[in-house]
């Protein structure tokens, strides 16, 4: 997720995002178990788990940075198929009881569980990624303006398309993913008139595999490509790997999500087909929350990452994209417009 200075540097984004955190609450580096030593950060992964080359792996990078800097021995726990909210609560409470702090639920599905666990372990700081409805004194809601990065992805897609048909594949039909679609469509429409955006959601619920089924992503992308799309943007977690595979097989462009997917080892076979990625700095959010606990000033409340503070961005790793002045100028202009408020990006 690294970019050249023309658009913003992700390494700087982590620091900028850290500055945006509002730290409050009393010092707490021990759990309700009574242990004096904080074992470190604990992640409870969302569907797809570690190795998704996207959302969960970005959180893992934040954990690894905290471990290296603070000497932690952090842990991360994989999700189980068909698990209930009660299962999630038990997982989070177990981590807090063992002495991990902060404990972070990676994904909006953890919101009810985080709220319940946080009430039982008030001395532990909890985090929830992609949800801002928890409203507890010891919870940080780590959220992002995904629509802004998606708008930039739409600008890039509109500049790249030759067929005037582009695609959007959403993992699950939920409000969070609607933000990606809305921003993308607006970016396309504002950049080039007459471009058709074909949209498809893989499933109605996460339990059906919308975020964890590359085969579903591949099939959806194939359908859009057959219908003329020569750029396809996926906001679908692990399922997005299938979209990228289909784009590569058909010699069209894919746009990745969450992390800089051009740089992902698991996708290196297809990287030349990844035009760019709409990123959100989950790595920075996870690390910054851990640092706030380490510093004795745990962050709580809504912590939002956007273009202005480096919490979201567009990757610039593919030399084809980085070296295309027309695309770069268009993205830069759009980014400035979003930052200064002349462009209002829709969320639905």
From TrEMBL:
It comes from the Bacteria. It is found in: Cell membrane. Residues 46-346 form the ABC transporter substrate-binding protein PnrA-like domain. Keywords: Cell membrane, Lipoprotein, Membrane, Signal. InterPro entries: BMP_lipoprotein, Peripla_BP_I, PnrA-like. It is a lipid-anchor. PROSITE patterns: PROKAR_LIPOPROTEIN. Its main location: membrane. GO terms for cellular component: plasma membrane. The keyword Membrane applies. Residues 1-23 form the signal peptide. Belongs to the BMP lipoprotein family. PANTHER family: ABC TRANSPORTER GUANOSINE-BINDING PROTEIN NUPN, TRANSCRIPTIONAL ACTIVATOR PROTEIN MED. This is BMP family ABC transporter substrate-binding protein. It comes from Streptomyces phaeoluteigriseus.
